[in-house]
Amino acid sequence: MTSDTSARPGAAYRRENRPSVPWTDMFVQGADGKDIRVRVYEPAARPSVTLVWAHGGSWTRGSIEGWHEACAALASLGTARIVSVGYRLAPRWLHPTAVMDIAAATLWAQKNYSHSIFIGGDSAGGTLAAGVALWFRDNGLDLDGQILAYPPLDPECTADSYRESRSFPPRSLLLDAWGEYVGSDTELRGRLYLSPLHAGKLSGLCPVSLIVGSTDPVRDDVEHFVKRLAASSVPVELEISPAVAHGHFLDSSPTNPVHRWIHTRLSNPDQPPATTDGETK
């Protein structure tokens, strides 16, 4: 499955200056011909790295506007151009619509920027980004890496960390969110691009960097994914941080540990993460 990734200025074309970070809204054509809005944050330094970012929001909420301040703050670090994707939301649009919308935006970025292209996201956006990376691999397309912040990866939320953690988000909320995203269709819940944990093999994926809070309910999912990546010889790096809470990406303060982590990961884009066994970096 491929997508025409032509883009044109949106009808509501706007540009705003936030310290050194102008942004522009564009429309990218999705795989089904629908317009997918993206917001491109262009740091003054014109970096040689582009990060295509999928916002969180449990697959059912979140937007370019809701993530604007955080994406602008991340772009203001000057490390990367940020392409924030306004993918279509559940329950109106079920899987794999969001994955393919983000894939279309990523293909567009590759067509327009002749340098390193990374895919990433926070929470549900991280899950979607991981699905996009698998789709790229299966279609013989290259990506330079994945930057994933605390992605939930198991639709059934079976790991111990879901029951032991008292931190946000509660297991009941995540189960409801998964249900709205994939419905009750058993076949749909097992599809490959829904979660990388469903993949029969992970070899051949682009390098993966992950961050998760030490008390986050999705921590076990993330550690399981890291172990499988390492066993498949995929370059992977994990940071487990007591300073990171689920949803921390939305903090637009200069000290945001998730933004600083992303900044560090992208500062040397040609150097892939070292394969780890899931230990804290």
TrEMBL record:
Ranges annotated as spanning the membrane: none
Protein EC: 3.1.1.-
Key words, A-Z: Hydrolase
Enzyme class: hydrolase
Listed GO MF terms: hydrolase activity
InterPro entries in UniProt: AB_hydrolase_3, AB_hydrolase_fold, GDXG_lipolytic_enzyme
Residue span(s) of domain Alpha/beta hydrolase fold-3: 51-248
Name used for this protein in its record: Acetyl esterase
Organism of origin: Arthrobacter stackebrandtii
